[in-house]
Amino acid sequence: MAIFEYGEYSDKYETPDNLVEIFENSAVKYANNLLIGEKDSAGIYQWVTYSQIATRVNNLRAGLAAIGVGAGDTVGIIANNRKEWVIGEIATQGLGAAYVPMYEKELVSMWKYIVKDAEVKILFVSKPEIFDKVKDFASEIPTLKQIYLIDGTGGNTMAGLEKKGEQNPVPSRKPKHSDVAVLIYTSGTTGEPKGVLLSHGNLAENVKAGLAWFLNLTEKSRCISMLPWAHSFGITADLHAFILRGGSIGIMGSVETLIEDLPKIQPTFMITVPRIFNKVYNGVWAKMREEGGLKRQCRLEV
Fold this sequence. Notes:
This protein is of the alpha/beta class. The chain has one domain (17-271): Rossmann fold. Helices cover 40% and strands 18% of the residues. It has helices at 19-29, 50-66, 83-93, 108-117, 128-134, 137-140, 158-166, 200-211, 232-245, 258-265, 274-290; strands at residues 3-5, 8-10, 34-39, 45-49, 74-78, 98-102, 122-125, 146-149, 180-185, 195-199, 222-225, 248-251. It has a four-stranded mixed sheet with strand order 4-3-12-11, with helices on both faces. It has a four-stranded parallel sheet with strand order 6-5-7-8, with helices on both faces. A two-stranded antiparallel ribbon has the order 1-2. α1 (19-29) runs parallel beside α9 and α2 crosses α3. It starts with a strand and ends in a 12-residue tail after the last helix. The relative contact order is 0.14.
């Protein structure tokens, strides 16, 4: 964390002080560890390793460089938590650019405002339904040069961009702690949404400060990812904290499927907000009733 000495701010950060090096160090140290798990169409969790994610990050970084993304640019994404979310983030930041995440469940006018305000140059969107809603943005927002679909394998997709980059590798740039890593926009409930500039040093030190309290979070730990990574709590305590320690992250299908996802993921950590813990408690309570009644009281401790 930033060091305070005798009441004066000392601009010193422990290394690694940026998200790119945090990921790259873990990708080497924990290469064969499982990193991200997602449900397939049959509801079975499929897992990918740190090494597999790193390969895709390297390819996408080169692909983004090939289409002109560089230091000071911004790359946006409209997607829920998924492996491509973190691939896009680290690839973007490895070029010295900033990442601008947006929620899938958002008004089109909100997406348009954020893309314009953040001067997003390249935009990734999760699925065709969203692509159809934003496809005209490029003709309406001068700073937006291209929109890529995450689902699919054609030329105008993330996979296509990765294939393009695989042919011409580009080494990562290690951001300074003061460089902007992510722009997270507020809800806009009190007016237009405000873009919050989060630096690499800010996020990296918050991750390390949080982990100082959770020494039992190790490379053997697993969490069920419920918080959106487009939120500061989710991107810090959920995503990058587990990456730093070499842990694994299983992504829940939805709040509605949470109870059935828990035994599939078998998490050792749940990092979330009280509303979700209440749902878990109520779900377990209802399950016990279905399976023969309650023989004793149970209590969920947070």
